[in-house]
Amino acid sequence: MSLGRKHRLNLFIQPDHARRLEDLSAHRGVSKSSIVAAALASFLSPDAADQREAAFARRLDRLSRQFDKLERDQNILIETLALFVRYSLTVSATVPAEHQEAARAQGKLRYAQFIDQLARHLQRGRSLVREVHEEIYPEQEGLFSGDAVQAPVPHQSEGNEAVAQVSPESEQGDEA
């Protein structure tokens, strides 16, 4: 094929594609032939397959990073729950038989309050973990934005146990 001479083709395309081609031609102020020629050149280019493969690789890498983050968050959640359950079972005293009915009623009431508080918090759309972390460590931004920031070591007491410092206001914050 000579460089100066062009070949004429009659093509049949879907009406939607024809409309989009017409809109793009009008918007860019170029002929429909030049748009089709550029698309065909891109499709037939030996680099097109490499570009598609690179795009797929980038997307797979991003999905892999997202999956790793989800897996990490799930492991943190499981460990947190396990520690909480172990702590609760360790410090909870056995309720005598004569007080078990009252304890059950109190447990049902507390559970209902917990569910109400959880629903209110979820409706607000913010993470309690994020709020608490930002309150305790305001100088550390980015922990929840995907940046790799090492979590700080909690304050250690003389007995090497982590000390939780909670103000009375924060304990009552969402109870009402």
Write a short abstract of this structure.
64% of the residues lie in helices and 0% in strands. The chain has 176 residues and is mostly helical.
Helix/strand order, N-terminal first: HHHHHH
Query: What would the principal axes of the Cα set say about the shape?
Result: elongated
Main beta-sheet strand count, sense and barrel state: none
Number of helices: 6
Total DSSP E strands: 0
Distance between the termini: 81 Å
Nearest-integer average pLDDT: 79
Q: Percentage of helical residues? A: 55-70%
Structural class: mainly alpha
Low-confidence stretches: 147-176
- The value of Rg in angstroms is 31 Å
Binned strand content: under 5%
Characterize the structure shown:
The chain has 176 residues and is an all-alpha fold. Helix content is 64%, strand content 0%. It has 6 helices and no strands. The chain has helices at residues 15-28, 32-44, 46-91, 100-124, 128-136, 168-172. The longest helix is centred in the middle third of the chain and has 46 residues, at 46-91. It is elongated and about 100 Å long. Mean pLDDT is 79; it is low at 147-176.
